[in-house]
Amino acid sequence: MPKSKFTIGQIVDFDLQAFPQYKASGPYKVTRVLPAEDARPQRYTIKSTTEAFERNANEYEIVAADEAKT
To answer: Which of 7, 11, 30, 56 has the greatest count of CB atoms below 10 A from its CB?
Structure first.
């Protein structure tokens, strides 16, 4: 099983260089690493303190907060 790039509690943000359509307020905290499914990208549940709900994100959509580009 491949190792996850992000861990629970890590601060991340959407990679705006690759996905400029995301405009939601970040940063986000990883709250869950979802089980890997076959050859699909690793998924995470993330939560922002500015939103009342959690989001699911693919590993390729997010970066560590200190790597985030605007």
So the answer is: 30
pLDDT at 35: 87
Distance CA 22, CA 34 (A): 21
Burial class (CB in 10 A: 0-12, 13-18, 19+), 39: exposed
Q: Where are the domains of the chain?
A: 11-67
Sheet holding 43-47, edge to edge: 54-58, 43-47, 28-33, 11-14, 62-64
As a three-state string, the secondary structure of 27-51 is CEEEEEECCCCCCCCCEEEEECCCC
For residues 61 and 45, the answer to whether their CB atoms sit within 8 Å is no
Q: Does pLDDT of 65 surpass 90? A: no
Query: Within 10 Å of residue 31's Cβ, how many Cβ atoms?
Result: 13
